[in-house]
């Protein structure tokens, strides 16, 4: 299974050409399932029309022009959007998909960029919700807006039970240096060329999994969306996407 996460940048910069580049990038990836963040209605119309044979779902945040989405080759059995949920409020979209006869849960999320305390509350609410869901295997993928040094990461990686496995960290052991390629790269992504950022680049976008048995195998991992297009002088997004190939 090829699973990916991609923050597609809710911005008019480089559009409409950049939306075409997003579609091109996602189609070339040929993922079995991809979670998308910062998805506005214009981008979603173009992306969803490019995948007529895939299962799809997209929800906007209340009072906002962007939201979260999934595109899946697998049948989607149910979906829950927690943006307006009173008990588990967080910007997350959770689906259950039928993957070759197995019901597997997938959550895509986008944590707040400017508050560590709020991010921790959001990820805690997502974890609480996921504990109510059936299905042994769960994936959580999205834009964490924080690094491995954060309390959010420590919560996911060290404090949750069952324990989450970070595929970025696991693939870095297979391919040393992968963790230093950075999905949010302020030095190489041309989006930041005219808006210099003093922050260090980091791996903001991650894929976690738990509940897998001994048959689970991480086969490959890579970033995508790194091409700069001459028409816009930009990549398809200000983030690079993250993709893994796994056997479950």
SSE series: EHEHEEEEEHEHEHEEE
**CATH topology annotation:** Deoxyribonuclease I, Chain A
Give the biggest beta sheet: 6 strands, mixed
Q: Tell how many strands the DSSP assignment holds.
A: 12
Helix content: 10-25%
Secondary structure class reads: alpha+beta
- Mean pLDDT over all positions: 95
Q: How many structural domains?
A: 1
So what's the overall shape? globular
CATH architecture: 4-Layer Sandwich
Written account of the structure:
The protein has 248 residues and is of the alpha+beta class. The protein has one domain: Endonuclease/exonuclease/phosphatase (Deoxyribonuclease I, Chain A, 4-Layer Sandwich), CATH 3.60.10. 22% of the residues lie in helices and 32% in strands. The protein is built from five helices and twelve strands. It has helices at 17-29, 41-49, 116-130, 151-159, 167-174; strands at 2-7, 33-40, 55-60, 66-72, 76-81, 92-99, 102-110, 138-143, 165-166, 205-210, 217-224, 241-247. The protein has a six-stranded mixed β-sheet with strand order 3-4-2-1-12-11. It has a six-stranded mixed β-sheet with strand order 5-6-7-8-10-9. A hairpin with a 2-residue loop joins strand 6 and strand 7 (102-110). Helix 1 (17-29) packs across helix 2 and helix 3 (116-130) packs parallel to helix 4. The longest helix is centred in the middle third of the chain and has 15 residues, at 116-130. The termini are close together.
Structure summary:
This protein has 5 helices and 12 strands. With 248 residues, the protein is α+β, with helices and mostly antiparallel strands. The protein is globular and about 45 Å long.
């Amino acid at each position: 299974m090829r699973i990916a996460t991609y923050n597609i940048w809710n911005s008019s910069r480089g559009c409409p050409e950049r939306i075409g580049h997003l579609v091109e990038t996602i189609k070339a990836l040929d993922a079995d399932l991809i979670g998308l963040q910062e998805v506005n209605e214009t981008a979603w119309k173009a992306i969803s029309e490019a995948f007529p044979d895939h299962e799809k779902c997209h929800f906007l945040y209340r009072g906002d022009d962007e939201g979260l989405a999934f595109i899946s080759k697998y049948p989607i059995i149910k979906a829950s959007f927690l943006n307006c949920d009173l008990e588990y409020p967080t910007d997350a979209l959770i689906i259950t998909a039928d993957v070759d006869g197995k019901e597997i849960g997938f959550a895509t999320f986008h944590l707040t960029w400017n508050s560590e305390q709020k991010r921790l509350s959001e990820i805690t609410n997502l974890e609480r919700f996921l504990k109510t869901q059936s299905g042994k295997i769960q994936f959580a993928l999205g834009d964490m807006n924080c690094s491995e040094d954060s309390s959010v990461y420590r919560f996911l990686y060290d404090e949750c039970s069952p324990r989450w496995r970070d595929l970025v960290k696991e693939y870095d052991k297979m391919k040393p240096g992968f963790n230093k390629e950075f999905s949010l790269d302020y030095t190489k992504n041309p989006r930041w060329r005219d808006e210099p950022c003093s922050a260090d680049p980091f791996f903001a976008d991650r894929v976690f999994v738990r509940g897998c048995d001994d048959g689970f195998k991480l086969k490959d991992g890579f970033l995508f969306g790194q091409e700069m297009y001459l028409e816009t002088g930009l990549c398809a997004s200000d983030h690079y996407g993250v993709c893994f190939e796994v056997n479950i």
